[in-house]
Amino acid sequence: MTHVARIDEGARTGARRRVDALAKPLGALGRLEDLAVWLAGVQGTSAPVPPREVSVVVFAGDHGVTGDGAVSAYPRAVTAAMVREFLRGGAAVNVLAGAHGARVRVVDLGVDDDLTDTPPEVRRHKVRRGSGAIQREDALTVDQALAGLAAGRAIADEEVDAGADLLVPGDMGIGNTTVAATLVGTVLGLDADQVVGWGTGVDDETWRHKRDVVAAALERARPYADDPVALLRSVGSADLAAGTGFLLRSAERGVPVLLDGVVSGACALLAERSAPGAVAWWCAGHRSTEPAHRAALASLGLAPLLDLELRLGEASGALTALPLLRTAALLLAGMTTLDSVAPPVPEQV
Amino acid sequence: MTHVARIDEGARTGARRRVDALAKPLGALGRLEDLAVWLAGVQGTSAPVPPREVSVVVFAGDHGVTGDGAVSAYPRAVTAAMVREFLRGGAAVNVLAGAHGARVRVVDLGVDDDLTDTPPEVRRHKVRRGSGAIQREDALTVDQALAGLAAGRAIADEEVDAGADLLVPGDMGIGNTTVAATLVGTVLGLDADQVVGWGTGVDDETWRHKRDVVAAALERARPYADDPVALLRSVGSADLAAGTGFLLRSAERGVPVLLDGVVSGACALLAERSAPGAVAWWCAGHRSTEPAHRAALASLGLAPLLDLELRLGEASGALTALPLLRTAALLLAGMTTLDSVAPPVPEQV
């Protein structure tokens, strides 16, 4: 049972009042104003500060959907290779985190490789190698789905206990947009055509195969549309289960999250269904080119900060948006008030 | 006569090749990839660096359109008051520049105040106090329009000579969105209804008056639609003339520009008409809520990086987008290549 922490409405009201008094026309900073007010609510102060301890967690896993023919432009072995690259520091997430002062942690939940050459903490939460082919079998057992959720919760706790004031979920896993599209389609009652995208860049033939895979998986998953745990067992994966647990725990602990692309969007949808109201703790960093992501954000009522046609995953969209969050807080803290600049505006000019 | 500097196509090709080799699916970084390639072309190197010496110039002026009844939510005196605030450091542009490591220069081209309490360099390029009421008289004399253009060119030269590697035009002036809408409407042959927006936040009655003012000004300006200098004289202002000269000179000097909102959009439209191809040196930081801005960007073929409903001016949108430009350069420089992560992908997976 998830108990969502309360947003500080008093802090929001105070921040809105401050925003409205700044030396600018009412509303002229547009969505940066809303962002400052959101930060106030999640930080519990009408004077929010730019997030300083930003923790990125990349949840990695492989997916059985890649077994019956391509649903991705890349072979499964790329997942393990990229996990190793995250540890070496040459991936997009590393560069972005370095540029914007965030730390990156990569966690193997279900990579189809033992990764014995990686540090034990990378593998500590491993649930299994790969997952079932969701077009015809369950992705996980119930125990594995619960283990994935628990791992995500534990990781959120570790990060928050280590001082994180902003959590950023990332993902790595060939085939994961297929799983995410299935989850979003099931929860929102959409058809495969409405949720399947080009992922990392498939061709038309692969897209059609991917759509057929998702259509079959949607068929299998329909009975569980209202049961997040059953959904993760039936058509999810250990890495998406962990992403979901991570988001649920953030909302329990009252720590804000900057969401990334379609994978964290699918997790957010499941988490919000498990714990209505949790979405108040999350901000959408960007909108990717995946149709399932657009649908998930719309359902969650989240307007993305960026829309730059990114489709990489790894938390790359969220980290690209991170400076906007900081900018919003700095504007609120640093701008003078209109009253101090000019006398009050008369009713009739 | 403007001689637009050449974009380095070789550098662009080299940067594109590098982008395509990075450890990510082809195109997965979306518009950040295009941004890195643009930077390569304007910096003349296939290994572009994040802009370091960013110079923001706020062009300030008052506008005769504010004389016959309100076109703005604010009285004219706010222009001079905000110029003083820019010098004190409490305006949005100051906070944003401080956050993102840019320097701010404010230049009075046509503020309706002698501003004798400000440093002489602020007033050195002053053309006149205010401008004509463009719904019924010329904004400037020809000599004043040319003086404004020359001032903008001189300022660009000063900034580039001082080491600027990115120029950012800003604006301050009650009534300036009315002038910008008129210029955009004239150049693109649009009606007042298609270009007039809510500016800093007018009410419906003020919007209708603003539309009538723009309709009258458009009528006056139509004969000069193809003559940028005559347009600036007839329905422009000294501050928009300077903004236009600033952009023209940037393209001659071969220094990139990050554009702000509708005012710099109108200047860009005039400058591109004067010197076709100059637009290659400019990047659109954001899209404001002003319809004339949307029209100007579409005509220029510029896709804005941000669309956050900002409508403040002062270079606030451009500065909010600045981290994206730096992020794009850092990704290109810092990411490893796909070949180094995983063996080449076979044709059939």
TrEMBL record, chains A, B:
EC number of the protein: 2.4.2.21
What residues form the catalytic site here? 314 (proton acceptor)
Please verify whether the record's keywords include Repeat: no
Q: Which reaction does it catalyse?
A: 5,6-dimethylbenzimidazole + nicotinate beta-D-ribonucleotide = alpha-ribazole 5'-phosphate + nicotinate + H(+)
Q: Report a single Gene Ontology molecular function.
A: nicotinate-nucleotide-dimethylbenzimidazole phosphoribosyltransferase activity
In what pathway does it function?
Answer: Nucleoside biosynthesis; alpha-ribazole biosynthesis; alpha-ribazole from 5,6-dimethylbenzimidazole: step 1/2
Quick one: a GO biological-process term for this protein?
cobalamin biosynthetic process
Provide this UniProt record's keywords sorted from A to Z: Cobalamin biosynthesis, Glycosyltransferase, Transferase
Oxidoreductase as UniProt keyword: no
Q: What does this protein do?
A: Catalyzes the synthesis of alpha-ribazole-5'-phosphate from nicotinate mononucleotide (NAMN) and 5,6-dimethylbenzimidazole (DMB).
| Entry's family note | Belongs to the CobT family.
Instruction: Indicate what this protein is called per its UniProt record.
Output: Nicotinate-nucleotide--dimethylbenzimidazole phosphoribosyltransferase
Species of origin: Nocardioides euryhalodurans
What are the top taxonomic ranks of the organism? Answer: Bacteria, Bacillati, Actinomycetota, Actinomycetes, Propionibacteriales
* Designated gene of the protein: cobT
